[in-house]
Structure formats: structure tokens, C-alpha cells
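Quick one, T. Sequence first:
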Amino acid sequence: MIAQILFVLALLGYAPLLYYTLKAIIFKVKWEYMVFFLAAYLPFHTTFLSIVLQSTESTFPVKFFQLAKDLIVLLSVLVFVLSQRRIFEYPFRLHIVDWLVLYFTGLAFLFLFLPLGDTTFVNKALYFKNLLIPALVYFVGRNTNFDDLEVRRLFQVIFVVAISAFAVNLMESLIDRHLQNFTGYPLFNQLVNNMEPSGNFGLTWTFETQAVTKRLASFFADPLELASSVLLGFATGLIWFLTTKREASFPYILVMLCSMGSLFFASSRAAFGAFFIMIFFIAVIFKLHKLILFGFGLAMTFVIFVVFFASEDFFYFVVDTLTFQNASSVGHVVEWLVALESMIESPFGIGLAMSGNSGSVTDEARVGGENQFLIYGVQLGFLGMIFYIMLLGFSISRSVRVFRLTDNVMSARIAFSGAAVKTGLLLPLFTANAEMYLYVSWISWWMVGYTMNEYSKIRHNHV
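C-alpha cells:
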């Protein structure tokens, strides 16, 4: 009965969203509205697929819905190209971030055809698709010009996602069950991802701590994705709080509180660290001295809690994590060493779909996989890893510059959010294949693209 109710609710949410998105893109030539679909759908992607599989008992509709998000992005790019009357005269003003996106994607395209690796061309093509789509999302953002109302609506979607995720976390905590126990998540992993159920809760080990306490994921794919996505909710809530009159700021305080609440429910060590890194980055870069004190106060509160009030299991869990004696931490180090060894032996890369946790990477071929930088280094060599690191660095620095120079408040809010999230994700990138967290990854790349559009305008006006 619960499965049928979830299926109906899922379709009632997905069908109107898809209809209005296609209507806007095709008939109104609003190809930019792709981002609304991504922001509203990607948090639910895996949960939606699990519900569809559980209800239909067929992988065919699952395959269709898996590709739908990619097709929406491709359709958006196609409509953009067709809507340009003189596409060959389109004024592309490329700068360092644009070039780095092109270099990185072009290098991956080259590796698609190089006879490297122990995997099939189909797996390579699927992996390349996972690299190409975020680049196209960046491209769409790079050519988007929203008015204030459209930007406000996008932020409102992000706010609703953050608040809703926390509400589901509260429900999960109240009934002491993971939402994934009702959505068919184990069956989805078994039939689609070739992963047998594991852990004490019949899901995967990701859904529990070493002390066998629940880590909640709300409607996201897993607790790690929820924890990383929290950074987007908190950063957007913070910039709206800082740029709104205090009497109207309560909704943004609520968004930040809900984001922090979900962070605790997810119990991700990397995300906790990323959260504090993001706070201090924001405070230092944007000279928010009260935020530095707030972040320092949170850190000290956590230390006092661990030392004086936490259970013995939790105390040693934190200590073992910091000293890399925790089983999970040791696992990360082992994966890093395997990846580094591969990079030293093959500095020019061993081929696509040979590292990471993407569905196109088979266990037999996988080399390393718990560090996004090393994942690209293994596959694309040192050059690919350097391109990716430079891309992140210049994306953050240019976004900070736009925030400081633009006169457009909405563009400044997007630039702030993009820079803060990309900075906050740096730590999770060291411990996970974090570009697979589609919601926070794709939306933040869109924000970087949108910010670079504003950067081009600022630079052009100053010439």
C-alpha cells in the first residue's frame, strides 16, 4: 500500500515538472529553464527511480528516467543553438574558466577513443557522458540571462529542497526508519547498480556509522549526498540573510537551521569539516567577522561536547578519525595510495571508466576511487587532474571577484553561492567521487557558469 502511494506521489510531482519544463524550453524557447527542472528533480533522482522500479518491477522505465535529466540538458543546448539566428556570429568572449572547461572536456573526449584501459567502449562512452553533461550545464549557465524574479524563483526551489529534506529527516527519526526502506532502494541497488544489500539496516554501509547508529539521507541517494547538498542550502540561505532586511530574514534563518539539522542527521565527517571550511572561507573572503566568531564558537562547542559529554564510542570514533585509525579513514588512505601508485606508473592516464564509483566503472577494472582529484588523475593522467584543480581554483576566485564587483544583487548572490559551495566541496572531493552528487554538483556548475557570464560583462565594460 505504501509503495503504491509513493508511486502516485512521485508521478504527481514528476509529470507536471517535466511538462512545464518541456513547454518552456520547446514552445517558449526558454531553454534556460532547464535549471529549474534540475534543481527541483535531482535531489529526488535516485529515490524516484527506486519507487518506479519497485512499482513497475521493470528496469525499462528506470533506464528512460535515468536518461531524462541528460536529455533535458541536451535539449536545452539544442534549442539555444537553434534559437540563435546567426550562431556563427555569436559573441563568445572566452576567458580562463571557459578554456579550462573546454580543455578538460576535450581531454576526456580524446581518451574516449584512445585504446587505453580494460573496459568497453560503451562504459567509456557512459563515463564521458557523465563528464560532458556538467560541462553543458556550465555552458547553459554561461549563456543565461535571468531577470530578478527568475533568479528569486531558482533560490526558492533550493530553499524548499533544504527545508523539505530536514522535514523528511525528522520523520525518519520519529519512526526510526530510513525512507529508503519504503522506496525500494535495496532492489534498485541490486538490479540497476549490481550491489547486494549490506549493513545492519538492509541498505548499504553508508547508511550507518561505525557505532551502528543510523545515518539518514532524507530523499537523497545516500547520507553523503545529503551532507554535501546541505552546503548549497546553507550558502544560499546565508547570502539571502545577509542581503535582506532583518525583519524579512526569518525564512533564510530557517533554511540555514534546516541545512545544519540535516548535516547532523547525515553524520558525515567530511561534510562537517567542509561546513566549517565553508564558513571560515565565507567569513574571511567576504570580511564577515561575526561569522568567524560563529564558526569558531561552533567548533569549540563540538570539541567541548566530544571531550566532556559524548559517549565513549563517539569519543573514540572522533579520535580514530583524526588519527586515521578509523576503518573508513584507513580505507580512504588505501584507495589514495592505490590511485597514486597507478598515476606514478602511468602519468598520462590509464583510460576512462577505470576509477571511481560511477555505474560505468566495473569492480574488476576499478583502480582507486575515493578521491575525485585522484580519480581523474588515474584516468586522464596528471594533466587531467591539473586541469580539474585549476578549473576549481579559477571558478572560485573569479566568482569572488564577481561578488565584489557586480552591481546586480541577484548576480552577486549567485556568485557568492557558487564560490562558497565549490570551496565547501573541496574536502568531500578528497574522500569521495563527489561530482556524482548531481544536485549540488550540477547546480553549482550552473551557478559558476552564470557568474562567468556576469564576469564577462564586467570585464567588457571595463575595457
